[in-house]
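We treat protein structure as text, and this decision shapes the records that our systems exchange. The tokens are whole numbers drawn from a learned vocabulary of local backbone shapes. Below, we set out a record of this kind in full and without editing:
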Amino acid sequence: MTDNIYIQTENNDKLKEECGVFGVYDFDGHDVASTIYYGLLALQHRGQE
């Protein structure tokens, strides 16, 4: 008896419309923690407005 199991996977190496990306770069050496916090908060709640 042989059971054949097929697993279908997606190609997950590309961004999709559900993904959110942002970046923070500071040339002046300021603390960017609050900017990162609010950026992550905005990504978490996007689409809920």
